[in-house]
Amino acid sequence: MAITLRNTKGSPLTHTELDANFSTLDAAIVDSGEIRTLIDSSYVLARTGNTYIDSDDFDTLFAAPNLITFLMVFQIHLQLCQIFKILLILVTFLIVLVVVLWMLRLLHS
């Protein structure tokens, strides 16, 4: 059922129309059980090798007491990923530098 909007109707909504709007929204919300079923489905697991996420990870991820806490944890995770990327680049650069210096030493000996 479509949601009835006040500005589209041109007059205040009745209690029945408000209830119908809330019922439509409630029916559209996917609960965690449906998401868990999708995540644990053989279709998804076959494509992720069961290493991407499972329902336990989902429960942990959304166990944050509120959205702000969840977003702060997610931001920290992203910052850690960026730090690891920088470290990986630095280590790679150092390895290349060592190899180049080693090759120069071989050429001069």
The global form is elongated
Number of helices: 6
Whole-number average pLDDT? Answer: 76
**SSE series:** HHHHHH
| N-to-C CA distance | 82 Å
Number of strands: 0
Write a brief structural summary:
With 109 residues, the chain is mainly alpha-helical. The protein is 75% helix and 0% strand.
Task: Tag the structure with descriptive keywords.
elongated; 109 residues; 6 helices; mainly alpha
Plain-language structure description:
The model has no long low-confidence stretch (mean pLDDT 76). The chain has a domain at 65-109. It is mainly α and 109 residues long. The chain is elongated, with a radius of gyration of 27 Å. It has helices at 6-9, 15-28, 32-39, 42-48, 55-61, 67-108.
Describe the secondary structure blueprint for this structure:
Layout: H1 6-9, H2 15-28, H3 32-39, H4 42-48, H5 55-61, H6 67-108
